[in-house]
Every structure is written in C-alpha cells, then in structure tokens.
Amino acid sequence: MSTTSPLLEVRDVSLGFGGVRALTEVNFHVNKGELFSIIGPNGAGKTSMLNCVSGRYKPTAGRVFFEGRDVTGMTPNQRATIGIGRTFQNLALFGHMSVLDNIMVGRHHLLKNNFLTGGLYWAGAQKEELAHRRKVEDIIDFLEIAHIRKATAGTLSYGLRKRVELARAMAVEPKIILLDEPMAGMNLEEKEDMARYIVDLNEEWGMTVVMIEHDMGVVMDISHRVIVLEFGRKIADGLPDDIMSNERVKVAYLGVDEDEEKAAEAVA
Ligand SMILES: Nc1ncnc2c1ncn2[C@@H]1O[C@H](COP(=O)(O)OP(=O)(O)OP(=O)(O)O)[C@@H](O)[C@H]1O
Q1: Residue 230 lies in a domain
Q2: Ligand 1 binding pocket includes 22 (Cβ within 6 Å)
Q3: In this structure, is residue 89 part of a structural domain?
Q4: How far is the CA of 47 from the centre of ligand 1 (A)?
Q5: Bridge partner residues of 30 (DSSP)
Q6: Atom of ligand 1 nearest to the CA of 44
Q7: Residue 146: which domain range?
Q8: Whose alpha carbon is nearest atom 12 of ligand 1?
Q9: Where would one find coiled-coil regions in this protein (predicted)?
Q10: Is residue 209 domain-shared with residue 162, that is, in the same domain?
C-alpha cells in the first residue's frame, strides 16, 4: 500500500436529483501526477461526479477530500482557489472577447493588486501584470495558439475553442485539472493534438489530470488508471489493460456480451 495520501479522494459519494440517483456510493482516489480517466455509458454519472469534485453539486451523501482536507462544503470558487481547476463539456468561453482576454480571465483570482491597491502601488501592479502576461504567453506557446491570440473567441473553430478553454483552465495554475470531454466534437487530427497536449500537460507541466472522455482509444492510450461508472455505480477501477479485459466493463460499456462473443468465435 502507498504511504503517501492521495491528492483527491472521493469517499462514498451519492447524488440524487429528485427520484433520479445519479451516483451511488462511489469511491476512488487520484494520486499526485496521475492521468486518471472516468468512463461509462451516457447518463452513467460521469459529469455529475466531476461536478461533485469541482463543487458545482453537493453530494447527497459522502465526502470529497483534496490534499487530505474535506472540501465537501466548499463552493466552486473556494475549490478553484485551493487548486481544483476544470473545463466544461459545453464550451464556456466569452465569445465576444479575444483569446488573450479569455485566458487572462482565468488568472483574475491570482491578481494581488485589485483596482484599489493597484492605484496605490502602480509600479507593483505593472510588475504583476507583466508576470501574468508572461505566464499566459507560456500557455499560448504550449498550446500553439499564438496565431489566434487576438482573434475573437466566438469566431474560432470548435477544436480551437476547446484548446482556448484548456488554456484558460491552465491559467489558473490548478494542482488538479478536471477535463469534461476535452475531445468531444473534434476531428481525428484535432483529437490527436489534444491528446498530445494533455499528455504533455501531465508529464512536462506535472499537472494531475482527471478526464472524462468517450473516445476509448484515446482513454486507453494515455491514461494511467481508469474507473468505469454504470448507472451511477463504480463497476471497475484499474489499469487500462485491466479495464479493457474486464468482462463486466465489456458488457456494460462496450456493448460486448460474453456469450455473444463466444457464439461469434464459434461461428468464425
Ligand atoms: N441537473 C440535473 N438535474 C436532474 N438530473 C440530472 C442533472 N444532472 C444529471 N442528471 C441525471 O443524472 C444522471 C447522470 O447524468 P450525467 O450527466 O452525470 O451522466 P454522464 O455519464 O456524464 O452522461 P454523458 O456521457 O451523456 O454526458 C442522468 O440520469 C441525468 O439525467
């Protein structure tokens, strides 16, 4: 057993919406430095789980711990401040603003100099602004979006907007980043690019990643560990290879029935 405590721990989390049970006693943990994925069929509870971690939803039962601290009662803003960052399934960019300004918004809560103190200590504010710009430029370079820096976000292709959204989430400098379907709606080339950015984000930038993604090829290719949800319950937790060969997962998620598979093999 590992002696280091996990970065994120989800303990017995249940979530209900009226009569709908979105999550039932889900347990898992994510270690620092992991690239961790949550998969499952439509409506399995993946986004609900991410929302319980980011603070958008409060679990009906169970607790969420971050760096050993119980964060279950914290608001999304409080969680963002202590290092839990996220992107959304549906894009949440300011369409009328430039790419650069959208990314700068992500750094707002890091600004020490607000309107008042900025006025009093102008030199300090300028220095701080410069440091922020430099950090943002690093992210822009990393995600290769320098050529669209001044473009209005709303005019960009879907794939590029997803990249800008990732840039904004990175700008907050989270300790863990929650990615809700980062490749949804992308073509093959865009998916390959995004997969590479996520791997580099994890390996080179040292960011812990929790990802929901429907593209099984990508998930199995880049994840260190995977959990599978079905009807709000966790049905598997393990290495990608274990998940791929797990019979329950095959039936639940991949739509492969063991008996059907045997029958098909017998016919072939
Ligand atoms: N705000 C909400 N109000 C009511 N029911 C909800 C709400 N959010 C989710 N649900 C329900 O909870 C269940 C889990 O939904 P969730 O969106 O978490 O699944 P998912 O695995 O992310 O699905 P998908 O892959 O389609 O995005 C579904 O039955 C869904 O209808």
Answers
A1: yes
A2: yes
A3: no
A4: 7
A5: 8
A6: 21
A7: 95-172
A8: 22
A9: none
A10: no
Other Cβ atoms less than 10 A from the Cβ of 247: the count is 12
Q: Is the beta carbon of 17 within 6 A of some atom in ligand 1? A: yes
The letter for the amino acid at 3 is: T
Phi and psi at 39, nearest 5°, equal -125, 175
Q: Which residue type is seen at 2?
A: S
Ligand 1 contacts CB of residue 48 (under 6 A): yes
| DSSP single-letter state for residue 114 | -
pTM score:
0.87
CA distance 207 to 35: 8
Q: Choose which residue among 14, 20, 39, 229 to substitute to test ligand 1 binding: the one with the highest number of ligand atoms within 8 A of its C-beta.
A: 20
Which ligand 1 atom sits nearest the alpha carbon of residue 229? 21
How far does residue 223's CA lie from ligand 1's centre (Å)?
23
Report the alpha-carbon distance of residue 53 to residue 56 in Å, rounded: 8
Which pLDDT tens digits describe the chain residue by residue (268 residues)? 445 789 999 999 999 998 899 999 999 999 999 999 999 999 999 999 999 999 999 999 999 999 999 999 999 989 988 999 988 666 577 778 899 888 888 776 665 545 444 454 566 667 777 888 888 999 999 999 999 999 999 899 888 888 999 999 999 889 999 999 999 888 999 999 999 999 999 999 999 999 999 888 999 999 999 999 999 999 999 999 999 999 999 888 656 555 555 555 555 5
**ipTM (interface pTM):** 0.96
